[in-house]
Amino acid sequence: MPWTDPRRCLAARSPCIPGPSTRRSFCCRSFLRLDRSAGLPRHEMVLSRPAVPAVHLTNADRSRAWLRLPAQMKKSVQAPGERSSVPGVDRSSPRKAGEVTRERMLDGAEALFAMHGYHGTSMRDVAEATETRIALVTYHFGTKDILFSKVVERRASYLGHQRMRALDAARGRMGGKPVAVADLVAGYVWPFVERSANGGQGWKYYALLVARLANTPDWAKVIGEHFDPISRQYLTEFQRVLDGVDEEVVYHAFSFMVGAMVAIVAEPGRVENLSYGRFKSSRPDQVYKHLLPFLTAGFDAMTALKK
């Protein structure tokens, strides 16, 4: 009976192809088990057998070999080309597949946290919503606290990047002089408004989630971790341009701006209710046209409160 080189077979991750002079197919994995029971180390197992020339297996070869397996073995052997959802199983592009799975879980968790809050969502809920096993959710994120933080962090990172790009551009235009209030307001508020209007349902859920967090003292730490570093950069510039205004007043004004922004992107429907449906607030980018001059005028009015 011909021997199959274990190095080729294990690397191929497929059942061994039967040799031309035998009617039975033996996988080198069974020989490895026999050799281990005999106490032979792995390098002796490989070197003690006569090696056969390397065989290039096409997908058709692997499919034919898999079809020749007994029915009970097919249940435990992955079919060629089949993608497994089990962590640790080799895939053609394991990193990409893992990233797709992880993103799907973040999307599902984001929607659930937005609709039901942190305490109204469990890891099992996330697994069921994304059609995965709870063990896989735990494998990727560990605990619900970590999952929740990652949900907040994912889009906060994008917003932070866009806000810093706008701030750096404004600083460059001013050449060391204080940045105009309107540029600071636009640089901070517009990235969130634009994504809420044009970013799809995921950003709608995220806006609702941030609105929940912004009005709950329990989550001040999460908000601070992912949003405060960029916010402090903007506060520094607001203090420069509002020179002479009490620092506490500037911090309150910044908080007013954030509150107005969150109210716009979360689309709570208050304008519709108050106007009996005559006016709409479902397009944050349209509402922003009125929000920008309103907030700018508010900051400018702070100069009347100089020390």
Quick overview:
With 307 residues, the protein is an all-alpha fold. It has 15 helices and no strands. The chain has helices at residues 6-12, 28-37, 42-47, 59-67, 71-74, 94-116, 123-129, 134-141, 144-174, 181-198, 201-214, 220-241, 247-265, 270-274, 284-301.
Can you describe what's shown?
- With 307 residues, the chain is mainly α.
- The protein has three domains: 6-74, no CATH class; 94-141, Homeodomain-like (Arc Repressor Mutant, subunit A, Orthogonal Bundle); 153-305, Tetracycline Repressor, domain 2.
- It is built from 15 helices and no strands.
- It has helices at 6-12, 28-37, 42-47, 59-67, 71-74, 94-116, 123-129, 134-141, 144-174, 181-198, 201-214, 220-241, 247-265, 270-274, 284-301.
- The longest helix has 31 residues, at 144-174.
- The termini are far apart.
Q: Secondary-structure map with pairings?
A:
Elements (H helix, E strand, L loop, with lengths): L5 H7 L15 H10 L4 H6 L11 H9 L3 H4 L19 H23 L6 H7 L4 H8 L2 H31 L6 H18 L2 H14 L5 H22 L5 H19 L4 H5 L9 H18 L6
Keywords:
single chain; 307 residues; mainly alpha; Arc Repressor Mutant, subunit A; 65% helix
SSE string, helix = H, strand = E? HHHHHHHHHHHHHHH
Portion in helices: 55-70%
Q: State mean pLDDT (0 to 100 scale).
A: 77
Question: At CATH's second level, what is the architecture of the largest domain?
Answer: Orthogonal Bundle
Q: Radius of gyration, rounded? A: 30 Å
- Give the DSSP E fraction (strand runs of 2 or more residues): under 5%
Largest sheet: none
* DSSP summary, beta strand count: 0
> How many distinct helices?
15
Provide the CATH top-level class of the largest domain.
Mainly Alpha
Shape: globular
Q: How far is the first residue's CA from the last residue's CA?
A: 96 Å
CATH-assigned homologous superfamily of the largest domain: Tetracycline Repressor, domain 2
Determine the structural class based on helices, strands and strand pairing: mainly alpha
Can you tell me the CATH topology of the largest domain?
Tetracycline Repressor, domain 2
Low-confidence stretches: 1-57, 72-95
Query: In the residues, how many domains can be counted?
Result: 3
